[in-house]
Every structure is written in structure tokens, then in C-alpha cells.
From TrEMBL:
This is NAD(P)-binding domain-containing protein. Residues 9-200 form the NAD(P)-binding domain. One of its GO terms (molecular function) is oxidoreductase activity, acting on the CH-NH group of donors, NAD or NADP as acceptor. Belongs to the avfA family. Transmembrane segments: none annotated. It comes from Mucor circinelloides f. circinelloides (strain 1006PhL) (Mucormycosis agent). InterPro entries: NAD(P)-bd_dom, NAD(P)-bd_dom_sf, Polyketide_Oxido-like.
Amino acid sequence: MVIKVAIIGASGKAGQAILKESLSRGLQVTAIVRNKSKITQDVNIIEKEVQDLTQGDVKQFDVIANAFGSPPGQEQNHVIVGKFLIDLMKGLSNTRLIVVGGAASLYVDDELKTRLVDTEKFPGQYLALATAQGQNLIDLRASTDVNWTFVSPASYFNPNGARTGKYQTTKDKLIFNSQGKSYVSYADFAVAFVDEIENPQHVNSRFGVVSEEN
């Protein structure tokens, strides 16, 4: 059976990487975007604002991939859209919600008490985004009757990095590759993301991804 995937924000960097990887594996892909002209691939398109989606729009899919992005100054939309999707997905037992999350909510200590965002050196310009994405994870963990997965990239999330197809995963702690870097390319992130679509290993939980090589 062909897996049916809808990608929210399919025209963005992460969304495009996931779309490309999904198509390469023969998944049936639908792009959910505000502007269909930004999608150049031959896929089905739902041209809607996220918050205009209905259960009728999404219940046909096996997976809803949330690659929603927000411009600077509108980071709180990650929380708003996240809560909307949680409500939308309630009761859809055959449809999973898989979210492109952030690295900042990963823990840097063995006791799992200090997140990357809590450290003194965390860049201030990313604080609003990190806080919003972290809240999305908190809201997912508090949800009921929703099948979800939250995928955190490494702290250096490289849009131009190579697709090696080799990666390591973590549950809640920030990890480093063989070169001592917290690094993942968008392409390798998409590999891990679509692997989770095809072979669910982290239902109702979060996992993080690093490329094995920079």
C-alpha cells in the first residue's frame, strides 16, 4: 500500500527536503501551501492557510508532516499552529502528525534538566523561535487521542549539506557525530524523517537527528 503524506509548508526549506525524499521513495505526496505557484513538483496541492484546514482535508492521509515556518517576529505562530493541529488531529487514529521541531529543546546534561535553550551561550536572536518550538513539544506531550512525533535537528541545521543517508538518533539529549559536531543537513534530516514515516519507531515521542559526517 502506498503511503499518503501531506506536507504543511512544502515550499519551505525543510518541507522541500521532505517532499523530495518522499517522492524519491514512491510515497504519494500532497503539498499544503498558501501559494501553489511555489510548488514545482508534480504533486497534488491543497492551497490553504493551515488554520483553514478541516478534518475532511487531512483524514485521507496516513501522515501529516508539519514543516510550518514563521518569519522573524511571528515565532508565536508555531504555538498557535501547533495547538490548532493537535485539535484537528484528535480522533484521527489512522493519521499521524510528524513535526519538524527545533534543537533547542534537547537537553545538554545527563540528568535531562538543562535544555540547549537554557544555556548562557544560546543565541538571543533565536530565543523566540526556540521557545515557541519548545512549547509545541510540551503541548504535544500533553495531548490525548493524537498520534504524534516531534523530530529535532542538530544545533547546526545545514540547508546546503550533502545527503549522506547516514545519521544517528537520540531521544531527548543533544548528541554529537564522530567529528564532535551537532550537525545535520536538511537532506539527511529528511532521510530520517521519511524513515520514521515508513517505519514508525517514535510514536508519541520526540527524537533528534545528527548526520554521521559533516
